[in-house]
Write a structure and sequence with these properties.
179 residues; 7-stranded mixed β-sheet; globular; 7 helices
Length: 179
């Protein structure tokens, strides 16, 4: 799979914010409407404020125009670890828990456009892990985390993540992977 992934701020620098907003407005993801809203309404602001970094998978559509095939957003977000959490011992030992807190990279958003081929999400996760590994080399953090709906637990487990627990409001599931 030939995938061109670029940072949102690099694209903004190349084409300007108005054209970037026009490009973002074309993204459609029926499976993840919250992620679609994030990309269109929040990603630029979060990038500008250094809250997160968004990476766009860009390709050409049938007419040769640039189109967003998918995106992912990365950030840093610690995870609290309690004694009663059902974390496998081998994972827990690698998390470097200190005072019930583990440093972690966050895969905050992940979405592919409607009609993109099967396997595209896994390829974007591989790309996200590439960036996590670079961070691990520079800063030493080796935990990646995400929060997902119940229906996505099996998918993320097949991508190397381990279920930790429901989050505090019990709406999402916290999962981790060791880089």
């Amino acid at each position: 799979m030939n995938l061109s992934v670029r940072k949102l701020d690099e694209i903004r620098a190349d084409i300007g914010e108005d054209d970037l907003n026009n490009l973002l407005s074309t993204f459609k993801c029926s499976a993840e409407p919250a992620a679609e809203r994030f990309l269109k309404k929040t990603a630029i602001k979060h990038d500008r404020e250094s809250i997160s970094r968004t990476y766009l998978a860009v390709g050409e559509d049938e007419s040769g125009l640039d189109t967003i095939k998918g995106f992912f957003t990365l950030a840093i977000k610690c995870i609290s670890v309690e004694e009663y959490d059902p974390i496998p011992k081998d994972i827990l030992e690698q998390m470097n828990v200190n005072n019930k807190i583990a440093q972690a990279y966050l895969l905050g958003q992940l979405a592919k456009a409607d009609g993109v081929e099967k396997g595209f999400g896994r390829e974007m996760i591989k790309r996200a892990f590439h960036y996590f590994a670079k961070g691990n080399e520079m800063f030493g953090c080796r935990v990646a985390r995400l929060d997902c709906r119940d229906s996505l637990i099996d998918y993320y487990e097949s991508c190397g993540f381990t279920f930790i627990r429901k989050n505090f409001d019990k709406e999402l599931n916290q999962m981790v992977a060791i880089i």
